[in-house]
Design brief:
The protein has 273 residues and is α/β, with parallel strands linked by helices. Helix content is 33%, strand content 19%. It has 8 helices and 9 strands. The radius of gyration is 19 Å and the shape is globular.
Length: 273
């Protein structure tokens, strides 16, 4: 039995908000919390990973420790994106510098802004393997990560259509988030817009998917679910599930962001905000 009046010692910092990585999300009552799972879902090419990396930079600058499982991208791609996000250099210039081993400026930026950020670049369909990696993080840093990122969900199950396995791993991640008092963010795919021009009410390319368009509809356990769509470098986010705030399951309410050529995310300017 659990008495509500004695909650403080049991709960600790579970439920506390992390620093807000995007002001436009915070204005909408969208926050990332300890002891909870969130999901960002979108079609391929909707900049899910780019958004996640921008959020990692913001959180790392606030002193948070982050463990990012990036089975959906290689280290070269991740480093090139981080370099662009931190310096605003375009990807072609960054790649040229990397290929020619002129990376001292980027390494200095990484040392300054990405302390306590670690990556794994392999996927595995055994949850215990993920737990072992997290325990290894704790052994190195003396604490569990504040944020754990899973990019992409299908890389951690036996097949892209294993919806039951996806539900099981999300449930297990939800339990893990409470055990280690971390926020766990999962990136996942959504249904592609209908390419048939004669289709009834086709979804525009920059319209985020509704909750029922998320592949496998695996949204039972995440407390927060954002969907994302992009056309060119202009993207929109929608909050289709939010246990602690407003939500729009049909994604009719959108939040715009812009991705610069460097892969840095910027938000629309609002005077007085």
């Amino acid at each position: 039995m659990y008495s509500p009046r004695r909650f403080r010692k049991r709960v600790g910092n579970i439920g506390r908000k992390l620093p807000d990585p995007l002001k436009s999300l915070a204005r909408e009552g969208i926050h990332f919390r300890r002891g909870a799972v969130s999901m960002i879902a979108g079609t391929p090419g909707s900049f899910k990973s780019v958004l996640a990396l921008n959020m990692v930079v913001k959180w790392a600058d606030e002193g948070l420790k982050i463990f990012y499982f990036s089975a959906d991208a290689d280290e070269f791609t991740v480093i090139r994106r981080f370099a662009g996000i931190l310096t605003n250099d375009d990807p072609q210039h960054v790649e040229s510098q990397m290929v020619n081993h002129r990376t001292s400026d980027y390494e200095a930026q990484f040392s300054l802004h990405l302390q306590g950020v670690e990556f794994e670049y392999e996927g595995f369909d055994e949850f215990e393997t993920l737990v072992k990696r997290v325990k290894g993080f704790e052994a190195i840093y003396g604490q569990y990560p504040d944020v754990l990122v899973i990019d992409n969900l299908i890389d951690f199950v036996s097949s892209p259509m294993a919806w039951d396995e996806m539900q099981m791993i999300i449930k297990a991640l939800d339990a893990l988030s409470k055990e280690i008092k971390a926020h766990i963010m999962i990136l996942h795919h959504a249904k592609l817009p209908d390419a048939n021009p004669n289709a009834r009410n086709p979804r525009p390319l920059d319209q985020p998917p509704a909750d029922y368009e998320i592949q496998g509809r695996v949204t039972q356990f995440p407390r927060l679910v954002l969907t994302m769509a992009a056309e060119s470098l202009h993207a929109n986010l929608a909050c289709v599930k939010n246990t602690n705030g407003p939500q729009y399951r049909d994604a009719r309410h959108t939040i715009p962001i812009t991705i610069l050529p460097s892969m840095r995310v910027i938000e629309p300017y609002r005077p007085g905000r």
